[in-house]
Amino acid sequence: MAIIPTDLLDRIRALERQVRELMGSANTTPALNQIMGGEVVIGDQGRLRVRTSGDEDLLYLGRVQPDRGENDPQQGFVVRRDDGSLALTVWTAAPDTLPVQPVQILDRRGNVVVADDAGHGGLARPYIPYPLPGPADAARWESTGSTAWTTLYRGPGMVQHPRLHCVIAAEGSTGAEVRLLVDGVPLGAAGGPGNGLVLTERLPAAFGATVTFEIQARVAATGDTLRCRPLALYGIQS
Questions:
Q1: 154 with 131: CB under 8 angstroms?
Q2: Phi/psi of residue 8, nearest 5 degrees
């Protein structure tokens, strides 16, 4: 039998030990529930998906449906309650008609209770009423017989929505008119006795700005009278 050098036997035993260690590490599954000092990157149209114990979708982060186009996926954020109802979304259900993703909070019935305005910015919901303007002249607080535009109500408001919905009741002589002004500029068309004034118009002011609302009225001829009263002043979405 040939004599094998001692150093060669030592090398063989070291190689066997290394092979055993490699096989052991290959069969060992590392812990995947912690990230220490690193980050998780999900790319290439991927997404993070969380499901309930009942195998129902709870959260999507990344690619969401529907896609914007054939080769244009939509990336967003969708959270559901454990009963399956939508709770929070950053996505658009109609990319062709509403490409901008609004941020929405929904109640259990699917009603959007809080949302930003995807068209022009600012708040979309809830609809928050502006304080109704108070009388500008206490002695003639609800009527005028002047043929010139006369301010009957004036008050401040803070802009939170891109559009304004206004309702003013009016009664009086034929041909009389009532109108709404924002910072001294008429908004929309004038109204008159009977139907009053009902308008929904874009507000000519930036989000967060403080504006002055005025309600003015005038009659068609001397001796006539017009009475008016503001009923509603709401900021609404675009």
A1: no
A2: -70, -40
Q: Which of 211, 215, 219 is nearest to 134 (CA)?
A: 215
The span from the CA of 84 to the CA of 96, in Å, is: 26
**Contact criterion met (CB below 8 Å) for 162 and 187:** no
For residue range 206-235, list pLDDT tens digits in order: 888 999 999 999 999 999 999 999 999 999
Nearest to 124 by CA among 92, 102, 147: 102
Tokens of 213: 């609302």
Bridge partner residues of 79 (DSSP): 59, 88
Residues 89-132 have pLDDT tens digits of 999 888 888 888 999 999 988 889 999 998 888 999 898 888 88
Q: How far apart are CA 195 and CA 24, in angstroms?
A: 86
* DSSP H/E element including 178: strand 177-182
Number of residues assigned to the chain: 238
Whole-model pTM? 0.71
DSSP symbols for 203-228: -SS-TT-EEEEEEEEE-SSTT--EEE
